[in-house]
Automatic annotation (TrEMBL):
It comes from Hephaestia caeni. It comes from the Bacteria. This is Uncharacterized protein.
Amino acid sequence: MPLYRCFVRGENFPGELVGASQFMGFYTTRWIEAPTAEAAETAGVEMLRAEYRFSEEEKQRAPDARVYFEEVVEVPADTPQIPPNSGATWFEMDSD
């Protein structure tokens, strides 16, 4: 089955920065084996939903929380999967 590297951006997820709760954005990479790029996106969303940090059980998300797949690229099956399927880089959402 093909391997896809998915570069994902999320917006309006709950977070904390310097002790102040606010909505945050994130970037993360997920590696997905799927038959098509579209199936990789679907599996990637399900993977994120299953992770505690992104689940609704930890904190209430904003009603307009969204996940965007900025890049979905089929890569050779032996591509090193760095970083592994965990973690994210968080950023403060603009208040505009």
